[in-house]
Amino acid sequence: MRFNEKELISLSRQPSERAAELGMRGPKKGDGTVVVKKKLVKLVVNFLFYFRTDEEEPQGALLLEQCRVEREDSLVFSIAFLDEAERKYLFECDSQEQCQEWVDSIIKASYEFMRKNLIFYRTEIHRLTGKDPLEQYGIEDETRFQVTSGLQPVQKDN
Amino acid sequence: MKIHEKILTHYLSCTSPVDKEGYLYKKKERTSSYQRRWFVLKANLLFYQERPADRHLLGVIVLEGCAIQHCESEGGLFAFSVVFRGSGLKTYRLAAENQLGQECWVKALLTASHCYLALLVRDLGKQYEAEAKRQAGPGESSQHSSVTGQSSEGLTQSMVSLNSCSSSFFMSVPVRTEGGNHRGSHVLQAPPMPSKVTSKRSPKLWPKRNAHVTPINGPVSAYGEWPQVDIDPLEDFTKLHEYYGEEVKQLRAEWLKRRQEGENYLEKDLIDLSEH
C-alpha cells in the first residue's frame, strides 16, 4: 500500500507535546525473553512515531485509531489494536506520572475521540442556546460533524 | 519507515463513520494521465482503491500539513490539488467529474485535518463552558458581556491559531465577493493585528434562559490540553474564513438545489417505480 511517506516523515519532525524516550518491548522470543529497546516515541496528531536512538527518520508510525490504551502496571502502558488481538505494543516509562500522562494523551489524540467531543459540544450548545455553533463557520452540513456521525456509519455521497 | 498497514486497513473497514467517498480522478505522477479511483475519506486519511468493492487498497494520503487548491479545468474535469508544504514534498492532483463534486470534495478535505478538528473542539469547548456558566447564574446579568467577551476572545484567538493549522485554501479563481459585506457577520475574521480582533465583541447575543439546566456533565472524558502541532503559518487565514462565510452558504444552497435536480434525474434513470 502506497502512502505519502516523505510527508509523514515531515510530520514526525513537527514539535509535539509529548515526546520521550520510552522502552518499547519487542515480541516475545522463542525462549520467552522479551527485548526492550529504548526508542524516542513521539505523539503527533493521531500518530505515534517511534525512532531508533539518534535517527532522524522514524522507524515506524502507529495510527492511534481503533485501539485500546491501558495501564499494564505502574510503569508500563500498552496499545492494543482491535484488528490483531494478539499484537499489543508495550511501552515502559520512567515514572508512574509519565505513564499516566502518556495514556491520557494517546486517548485524547484519537480523531474519533475528538469527533465525539465535538458532537457533544455541538449538541449541548445547540440545546442551551438554540443555535448551531457550526453555522458561524459554514460547516454545519459537513458529514464529519453530524450528530449521528459518532454513532454509526453515514451513507455515501452526502 | 514502517506504517503498520493493518492498523490503517482495519480503521478503514471498521464501523467508524466515513466522511466522504466517491470516484475521483488521480493524476499519475510521471505521466499526465488521470486514473479513475475510488476514494474514501475518513478522519484525516484519504484512502484510494480501484473500485469500491476492492479489498486491495492502493494507497492512503495522510492529510496533515497540506493545502487544498483549485486548479484549472483539465480535459473536462474539475481539478484540484492537495499540496504538501515543505521542500521536496508532493502535490497530488485530483479531479472530479463535475463542479459540485469538486466543491464538495474540496470542502471535505479542507476540514479533514486533525489540527483543524482540535482547534474546532477547543473553540466549541470554550463556547460551551461560557454558555454553561452563564446559564448557571441567570441573575448575574452584569457578567454577561464579560463572558461573551471572553468567549469571543477565546474564539478569535483559537481561530487565529487556525492560521497555523495544516489546511488552507487558495483560490486561483477569484471569489465572487459582494463588496466584502459578508465579513461583518463573523467575529472570526482573524486580521493580522490581535488588538483589532479582541476589541470586537461577539455579534451573537445568546438569548437568556431560565436556570433549570441539568447539571453539566462533561464530554466523553475531562479534557485538558489538546495535543498541539505547530506548523509554520503560511496561509492567509482570512481567505479561509471568507470561504466559510456567507458566500459559501449561498453557493451551497445553489448546489443543493442543482444536486436535488440531478438526483431526481438519476432516480428517473435507475428506478422504474412511479414517484409518490
From TrEMBL, chain A:
SUPFAM superfamilies: PH domain-like
GO cellular component: cytosol; early endosome; recycling endosome; trans-Golgi network
InterPro entries for the chain: Boi1/Boi2-like (IPR045188), PH-like_dom_sf (IPR011993), PH_domain (IPR001849)
Entries under CDD domains matching the protein: PH_PLEKHJ1 (cd13258)
SMART domains, per the entry: PH
Start and end residues of each PH domain: 15-111
Gene Ontology process terms (BP): endosome organization; receptor recycling; retrograde transport, endosome to Golgi
Top-level taxon: Eukaryota
PANTHER family in UniProt: PLECKSTRIN HOMOLOGY DOMAIN-CONTAINING FAMILY J MEMBER 1, SESQUIPEDALIAN
Protein's recorded name: Pleckstrin homology domain-containing family J member 1
Organism of derivation: Esox lucius (Northern pike)
Automatic annotation (TrEMBL), chain B:
PANTHER family recorded: SESQUIPEDALIAN, SESQUIPEDALIAN-1
Role played: Plays a role in endocytic trafficking. Required for receptor recycling from endosomes, both to the trans-Golgi network and the plasma membrane.
SMART domains according to UniProt: PH
Residues annotated as domain PH: 17-114
Disordered: annotated span: 132-153, 180-212
Protein name, as recorded: Sesquipedalian
GO BP: endosome organization; receptor recycling; retrograde transport, endosome to Golgi
Originating organism: Esox lucius (Northern pike)
